[in-house]
Write a structure and sequence with these properties.
about 140 residues; 8 helices; about 60% helix; elongated
């Protein structure tokens, strides 16, 4: 069975991939127009892909992931420990979408709420999360 025929009856897959693409684009602070221009497609086509109206072709997905500096496995991975409650899982997913400065601010706020001392301005040395660039600040 071809991928196209598999997706034809399963719009949820298109919706999920589209949602992931939108989240990835927004996490990189790119507009649809910016990303579309960088990968050589029309903004309206990217919009339809993000909304699950168009199937994302393999070539287009490769270009998007390459532009965002993320691998296929990172894009499709959904690793969240099974013992987390939904609120914790949601917090982890949101944390991963933040840039480096946003992560620092969130951790500083959590420390404040827990009455823990603030960290030094050179603070937390985060490992790069999937798709991070070394120059990302927000």
């Amino acid at each position: 069975m071809s991928t196209a025929s598999q997706l034809k009856g399963r719009p949820a897959i298109r919706d999920d991939v589209g949602r992931k693409l939108r989240d990835l684009r927004k996490a990189r602070n790119l507009t649809q127009s910016d990303l579309a221009a960088r990968i050589g497609i029309q903004q309206s086509d990217l919009c339809r892909m993000e909304n699950g109206q168009y199937r994302v072709g393999l070539e287009t997905l490769v270009k998007i992931l390459s532009e965002c500096k993320i691998t296929f496995s990172e894009f499709f991975q959904e690793e969240v420990p099974a013992n987390l409650i939904p609120e914790e899982s949601g917090l982890i997913q949101r944390f991963r979408r933040l840039g480096r400065e946003g992560r620092h601010q969130l951790l500083d706020f959590a420390r404040f709420l827990c009455n823990e001392p603030a960290e030094d301005p050179q603070r937390d040395q985060f490992a790069l999360l999937p798709g991070d660039s070394k120059q990302q600040d927000s």
